[in-house]
Specification:
Layout (H helix, E strand, L loop, with lengths): L2 H15 L10 E2 L2 E2 H17 L4 H17 L6 H19 L8
Antiparallel strand pairs: 1-2
């Protein structure tokens, strides 16, 4: 395992234990339901931890990452911002494993 793998595993375990932010339930972030965005990113991170994402999944991850990037500065709830920052970090780590144009 590389240092990046260890860090992703650590973040994943912390994410699994963290409750979804109450302040963001039934909230839209950059036009997308916050809980659905969380579910999509977490699912793609999980797939990448256990096997490799395919090209369609990498594209979906990048789209979700763009939504989080747009929404993060607008999240006023401190816990919610921290939760989505950690989710964004995991998504970015996975996206870095799959540079644009790399065949999966």
């Amino acid at each position: 395992m590389t240092h990046a793998d260890d860090e992703l595993a650590r973040l994943w375990e912390a994410y699994r234990k963290a409750p979804f932010p109450d302040a963001l339930r039934r909230t839209r972030l950059a036009g997308k339901d916050a809980a659905l965005l969380d579910f999509e990113i977490a699912g793609l991170v999980w797939v990448d931890i256990h096997k490799e994402l395919d090209g369609r999944q990498v594209a979906a991850l990048r789209e979700s990452l763009a939504v989080v990037d747009e929404a993060l500065p607008l999240i006023e709830d401190e816990y919610g911002a921290s939760y989505f920052t950690d989710l964004r970090t995991m998504a970015a780590m996975v996206a870095e494993r799959h540079p644009p144009g790399q065949a999966s």
